[in-house]
Amino acid sequence: MTDGRDNQHDASTRFAHLGRPRPGLGTPVNPAVERASTLLFERSEDLYRDDIRGYGRHGSNVHDALKTLFCELEGGATAQLYPSGVMACTQPVLSFVKPGDHVLLTDSAYGPTRFFGQTFLRQMGVELELYDPHIGAGIADLMRDTTSVVLLESPGSLTFEIQDIPAICAVAREAGAVSIIDNTWSAGLTLNPLALGADISTHSATKYFGGHGDLLFGAAICAGEEHGAKLAKTAKQLGVASSPDDAYQVLRGFRSVTTRFAKQAATAQALAIWLGQHAEVLQVLHPGHPDHPDHALWQRDFTGGGCLFSVVLTERSHARVDAFINALRLFGIGYSYGGFESLAIHCDPQLKRRHADALPGPLVRFACGLEDADDLIADIEQAFAASA
């Protein structure tokens, strides 16, 4: 297991060897993919046992191996798998809420999580309240007797605020609320929120663990067995099932994730430093950048960065921002991150619904892939020139 903070030191070795079959005579290096809906039994009385899998929806050997690696990633007790990252962020909430409850969600949250809270939760009679991501221990003032879940995300998906995870989770635990954090940005390699007091850490495994922009997957890792049992029960009740082929691809992604992640994080840091000195940029929103307002907090809790960050450009029209992005040759235009390809998106169409006039200029988010950092820098420079 990890020491709770530096999880990248020996992860390459562990991820290369865990979740594999024991060698025999010509044994494959990874578990075999088993595609099945119906599972057969020799005896009728075994069909109703609750200590074994009774149906294909309940998983397979490759799912078991993948759960082992996700637990190892963050030192969790259990892991639950989902067919998408959005489901990993939202379905755990359903395990702990009921009509009349109150849920706290960071105002910097991933858009689909926010949408889920503002629509689905409210439709089922759960009150959602957004809180300032910088609130820290002050979240105690927002807690109620009916507060059942506190949702965190550090850093935020577009504006990259760093939250005081230990302080917020301590308040939640004292109040009897479950703390759930979206830990996708760090891949669990540079942040271990379970060691900082969070109850559940969720991942869009679509991103770093998929790594190639061609699958959807999610995971939730629980610090304790009790919470894990509730997640498993909810998943079974709602018919959650993930493809064994996708699970196999994510398992395979684990084998190389530390190497890919290190390259992408280093590229993002290099671009952030370069952009921080560029005349077209007012502010770099990367917590690893020395000028980030939460840099000290990031240094306290994280051991490194991630591939994703944003920049605030000098004042310009929406059309000119779009022209800049359209002029990029190596950055694709699309959502997600953590894949081999670099991406860029104009964030203002999302932000205007939340933070009108909160930033001094338009916001562009970059996701760094596996291209050479100097080539990406040259691409950004030519796009600035082309859109001038």
Per CATH, the superfamily of the largest domain is Type I PLP-dependent aspartate aminotransferase-like (Major domain)
Q: Name the shape in a single word.
A: globular
Order of helices and strands: HHEHEHEEHEEEHHEHEHEEHEH
CATH-defined topology of the largest domain: Aspartate Aminotransferase, domain 2
What is the C-alpha radius of gyration, as a whole number of Å? 21 Å
Number of domains: 2
**Quick check: average pLDDT?**
94
Task: Provide the CATH architecture of the largest domain.
Answer: 3-Layer(aba) Sandwich
Q: How many β-strands, per DSSP?
A: 12
Q: Characteristics of this structure?
A:
single chain; 2 domains; Aspartate Aminotransferase, domain 2; Aspartate Aminotransferase, domain 1; globular; 35% helix; alpha/beta; disordered N terminus; seven-stranded mixed beta sheet; 388 residues
Notes on the structure:
It contains eleven helices and twelve strands. With about 400 residues, it is of the alpha/beta class. It has two domains: about 10-255, Type I PLP-dependent aspartate aminotransferase-like (Major domain) (Aspartate Aminotransferase, domain 2), CATH 3.40.640; about 255-385, Aspartate Aminotransferase, domain 1 (Alpha-Beta Complex), CATH 3.90.1150. Helix 4 (about 110-125) links the parallel strand 2 and strand 3. Helix 1 (about 10-15) runs antiparallel to helix 7 (about 245-275). The chain is globular, with a radius of gyration of 21 Å.
Give the helices and strands, then pairings:
Layout: H1 11-17, H2 61-74, E1 78-82, H3 85-94, E2 102-106, H4 111-123, E3 127-131, E4 147-153, H5 165-174, E5 178-182, E6 200-203, E7 218-222, H6 225-237, H7 244-275, E8 281-285, H8 295-301, E9 308-313, H9 318-327, E10 331-333, E11 342-346, H10 348-351, E12 363-367, H11 373-386
Parallel strand pairs: 2-3, 2-4, 4-5, 5-6, 10-11
Antiparallel strand pairs: 1-7, 6-7, 8-9, 9-12, 11-12
Helix pairs in contact: 1-7, 2-7, 9-11
